[in-house]
From TrEMBL, chain A:
Taxonomic placement: Bacteria, Pseudomonadati, Pseudomonadota, Alphaproteobacteria, Caulobacterales
Protein name as it appears in the record: Cytochrome c5
Organism this protein belongs to: Caulobacter segnis (strain ATCC 21756 / DSM 7131 / JCM 7823 / NBRC 15250 / LMG 17158 / TK0059)
GO molecular function: electron transfer activity; heme binding; iron ion binding
Signal peptide: 1-19
Keyword terms of this UniProt record: Electron transport, Heme, Iron, Metal-binding, Signal, Transport
TrEMBL record, chain B:
Native organism: Caulobacter segnis (strain ATCC 21756 / DSM 7131 / JCM 7823 / NBRC 15250 / LMG 17158 / TK0059)
A Pfam family recorded for this sequence: ALO
Gene Ontology terms, MF aspect: D-arabinono-1,4-lactone oxidase activity; FAD binding
Protein known as: FAD-linked oxidoreductase
Transmembrane segments: none
Start and end residues of each FAD-binding PCMH-type domain: 56-221
UniProt keyword annotation of Flavoprotein present: yes
Keyword Lipid metabolism tagged: no
Keyword list, A-Z: FAD, Flavoprotein, Oxidoreductase
């Protein structure tokens, strides 16, 4: 019983450690980050990067989990809708005239640090 | 714009104290909600396109992103009209919306060559990306607009400009261009080859076809010293002409309901770089909005509070390469009207606009911008025929902007202003013909290059008086 409780406790600690968001990238790292897929990287570079890799724009920085977590919690549908419509400082579609909804989903996943959809 | 963290923090405190007043709370909570938005997908399953500020939208049947001129030329031949080129969607007017084909040159970007100090640049390049590309060669665009998110093609399309008496708008430095017409013809044009197409196409609102690349003059990538300082609006008015003559770049903002103005100058220097520090425009605008929300019901109180809170702000200085300093981030969305006036009318028009807004529209809080732009000879350039002085009035994107048409535009028109093509205005057909000596020549080139009007959406038809 006691041993079981210890195991559960350590599993919880491990889980908690695993959930701890990684530190945000430095400004230089943020500028250098790109999605692995070349086509997506080109879309990201033309449209998203001008705000999401520049701290002074107020946009959540690419791979900054602390900034993205509360947004991510709203769910993919809400984030996608805000992207297409524009929301607060975010202009509609991030001014990507040719991105499809699937492109936006992949770009949001990348910026939120969730390229691995299991995360 | 101006930015003093100290002043703004003081502003926040002041606002909080004043908020204790009974009436004030009601106004404070009067911040408008997000404007209603159109559906993300229409009944036909087409995806929404919207401009930066959110007031223009469309559900294009097709979206093209050609990778080269061949693909672009082929696609234009058969594309469903209206065919509308689009850049970053930063225009406020209905230039881009189409139920037909939207053409983005996002996949056609970069510097593809040099002819001496002139760069050959593909027009899908965003201005922000162009800076570092030119800097690699020790070169820069002589001037830049307030932001650098626009595509080069879009910026040229609407005669986008910065400020400086001796510095023309971006298209003024274009010495050659390649136009792909709706019939798929590829035309190289400059002062010697196809000169009529060159003069018409440099500022052409995407109505002649798609410009795939341009040859554009560059200047040495010099370091600039940027200064930002506040002073009473009257003093800014009295000194403006001298400052335009003195500085490489100069502009100022009248801050309505404060009695103040913010000046910004840029001058070449060899001084070592001095960081600009974080952009604080947003905080400044929030403070002005706070003053509006809390004290908008009483102009004298609002002015007194603004003066007390903001006028002690210390000047700011930064030194860096021009492409890093001339544009700033403008993350707060707005709608805008800008007219380009004969220089002798500019300050009179500005004064009248400020006076009118302060009398009639206490909800306005955005600063009003005054700039100078050198002359050029493109047929639809607002700077065609002489240096012009611009005045730009903004409205927060959640606020009503109808006053731009009812109160501001009549003043600009009385002072013989020409509208910025990408910003709000109501001028059409004959009204524009009266302002542009080469208007009919432009329309003749348009008719020749696109006889079936496949590039024209309803807005452009109205603008050109073709309906
Ligand atoms: C925050 C903000 C700040 C601004 N600051 C300034 C400023 O300081 N100075 C200023 O002058 N303006 C300014 N503007 C206005 C802006 O520069 C212009 O509206 C500009 O045209 C926007 O460029 P874009 O790439 O978004 O073009 P879009 O708005 O997408 O298109 C503009 C026009 O260009 C045409 N076009 C685009 N690409 C091509 C091409 N390859 N070939 C042919 N036609 C093409 C389009 O059909 C359309 O007619 C500002 C706008 C905003 C939202």
């Amino acid at each position: 019983m006691k041993r079981g409780a210890v195991l559960v406790a350590s599993a919880l600690i491990l889980a908690a450690c695993g959930a701890k968001p990684p530190p945000p990238p430095t400004p230089e790292q943020a500028l250098a980050l790109r999605p692995a897929d070349a086509r997506l990287a080109a879309l990201y570079e033309t449209s998203c990067r001008a705000c999401h890799a520049m701290p002074e724009t107020g946009a959540p920085m690419v791979h900054d989990r602390a900034a993205w977590d509360p947004r991510w919690k709203q769910g993919e549908a809400v984030l996608l809708d805000h992207t297409i419509q524009g929301f607060n400082a975010m202009p509609a579609t991030g001014q990507c005239a040719t991105c499809t909804p699937d492109d936006f989903k992949a770009l949001i996943r990348f910026m939120a640090g969730r390229e691995d959809s299991a995360k | 714009m101006i930015s003093r963290r100290g002043a703004l923090i003081a502003g926040g405190t002041g606002v909080a104290v004043v908020a204790g007043g009974a009436g004030a709370y009601k106004v404070a909570t009067g911040d408008k909600p997000e404007p209603p938005s159109p559906p993300s997908v229409n009944a036909d399953g087409k995806l929404l396109w919207r401009n930066w500020s959110g007031i223009q939208n469309a559900y294009p049947a097709a979206r093209l992103a050609p990778k080269d001129e061949g693909e672009l030329a082929l696609a234009l031949k058969t594309a469903q009209g209206p065919i509308r080129p689009v850049g970053a969607g930063h225009s406020f007017t209905a230039l881009a919306p189409t139920t037909g084909t939207l053409v983005s040159l996002d996949a056609m970007a970069g510097v593809v060559g040099w002819e001496g100090d002139a760069a050959i640049v593909r027009t899908g390049t965003r201005l922000g990306a162009l800076g570092p590309m030119l800097a690699e060669k020790g070169r820069a665009l002589p001037n830049l607009p307030d932001i650098n998110k626009q595509s080069l093609g879009g910026a040229l399309g609407t005669a986008t400009h910065g400020t400086g008496t001796k510095i023309p708008a971006l298209h003024g430095d274009v010495t050659g261009l390649r136009l792909v017409t709706p019939s798929g013809q590829v035309i190289d044009a400059d002062a010697d080859n196809n000169p009529e197409v060159f003069q018409a196409a440099r500022v052409s609102l995407g109505s002649l076809g798609v410009i795939s690349q341009v040859r554009i003059k560059t200047s040495a990538n010099r370091r600039l010293r940027r200064r930002v300082w506040l002073e009473p609006f009257d003093e800014a008015l009295a000194n403006a002409e001298v400052r335009w003559a003195q500085h490489r770049n100069f502009e100022f903002y009248a801050v309505p309901f404060t009695g103040l103005a913010a000046n910004i100058s840029h001058d070449e220097t060899d001084e070592p770089a001095l960081a600009r520090g974080p952009d604080q425009d947003t905080e400044f605008l929030e403070a002005l909005k706070g003053l509006r929300n809390l004290l908008g019901f009483a102009t004298p109180v609002r002015k007194a509070a603004a003066k007390a809170l903001l006028s002690t702000a210390k000047p700011e200085t930064a030194v860096d390469e021009g492409w890093k300093l001339l544009s700033t981030e403008r993350p707060v969305r707005f709608n805008e009207m800008e007219f380009h006036l004969p220089v002798e009318n500019q300050l009179k028009a500005l004064e009248e606009v400020v006076r009118t807004i302060e009398k009639e529209r206490p909800d306005v809080f955005f600063p009003i911008e005054a700039r100078r732009i050198a002359a050029d000879d493109a047929w639809l350039s607002p700077f065609q025929g002489g240096t012009r002085g611009s005045v730009a009035v903004h409205a927060y994107y959640r606020d009503d902007f109808s006053f731009l048409y009812s109160l501001v535009e009549p003043i600009f028109r009385r002072y013989e202003g020409r509208p910025h093509w990408g910003k709000l205005h109501t001028l059409r057909g004959q009204q524009l013909a009266a302002l542009y000596p080469r208007w009919n020549d432009f329309l003749a080139v348009r008719q020749e290059l696109d006889p079936e009007g496949r590039m024209l959406n309803p807005y452009l038809k109205g603008l050109f008086g073709l309906t």
